[in-house]
Amino acid sequence: MAHVAEVATRAAAKQLAESTADVVGSRTRSVILHGSLAAGDFRPGRSDIDLLAVIDGALSDPQIDALADLVRHADVGDASGVDLHVVTAGVAGSPTRTPPMELHVGRYDDSTIGFEIEPRVAASPDLPAELAMARADGHNLIGARPRDTIAPIPVEWLHQRGRYWLTTWQSLVDDSEDAAHMVLTACRIWRFAVEGAHCSKGQAASWVLGRDPSLTAVRQAFHQYATDPEASIDQDGIARVLETVLRETARMQ
């Protein structure tokens, strides 16, 4: 059944990419699928469709409205929502530490956030990580290949931004809605710091537990993410994961 769900969701992602390209028109350089659906770790009802659109020039107001409406009403197959980022080819080809972003539209069907739209963001410090993951593991659904449109991202930018989030999350261990995301992303940050490898949440969790099986919050977080959304994650365990990853990644500075 999981395979059937993945096939259906890939078809939905392809349709969404084509519709995005229709809105942007001939200025579409590439629409790239990345994230769990591209990495082979898709979880029905838990994973998003992650798309990055690279375009020539800026979006118009009507195009921003059309893309937001497209994401809001899109068939997402068995995904839990959509994350669509739109950047110019200039930004993708020559990124900075805090590059501008044309548009982010997020639809999170099982979250209290629900739906968000961020047009014309002047400085997006998390965008380099998005670009790096799309370049490393993404698949072009429309247009050029990721490595032909996205330049390499300096590793130190990713290390520093990862540690920023680890530190921020230390004050949010009681946030039950985002607990699994924090723990599993911390695992991804740790593995990337050690091996320079972008990977899925599941792959990162297995890697961390192989290094330190005593980090029980990792096992709990992956169980919640993959199997039981109602499962709890121990707050002290979350704090320990964050402390461990901060300590281990400090040597990578």
Can you characterise this structure?
The chain has 253 residues and is α+β, with helices and mostly antiparallel strands. The chain folds into two domains: 2-149, Beta Polymerase, domain 2; 155-250, no CATH class. The protein is built from eleven helices and six strands. It has helices at 2-24, 36-39, 61-73, 89-93, 127-137, 146-149, 155-169, 179-195, 201-211, 216-226, 235-250, and strands spanning 28-34, 48-55, 81-88, 101-108, 114-121, 139-143. A six-stranded mixed sheet has the order 5-4-3-2-1-6, with helices on both faces. Helix 1 packs antiparallel against helix 3 (61-73) and helix 8 packs parallel to helix 11 (235-250). The longest helix is centred in the first third of the chain and has 23 residues, at 2-24. The protein is globular, with a radius of gyration of 18 Å. The N and C termini lie far apart (43 Å). The relative contact order is 0.12. The mean pLDDT is 94.
Structure in a nutshell:
This protein has 253 residues and is of the alpha+beta class. The protein contains eleven helices and six strands.
Within CATH, the superfamily of the largest domain carries the name: Beta Polymerase, domain 2
CATH architecture of the largest domain: 2-Layer Sandwich
Distance between the termini: 43 Å
Per the CATH scheme, the topology name of the largest domain is Beta Polymerase, domain 2
What CATH first level of the largest domain would be assigned? Alpha Beta
Poorly predicted runs are none
Order of helices and strands: HEHEHEHEEHEHHHHHH
Overall geometric form: globular
Determine the oligomeric state from the structure: single chain
Radius of gyration from the CA trace? 18 Å
What is the count of helical runs?
A: 11
What level of helicity do the residues show? Answer: 40-55%
Can you tell me the number of structural domains? 2
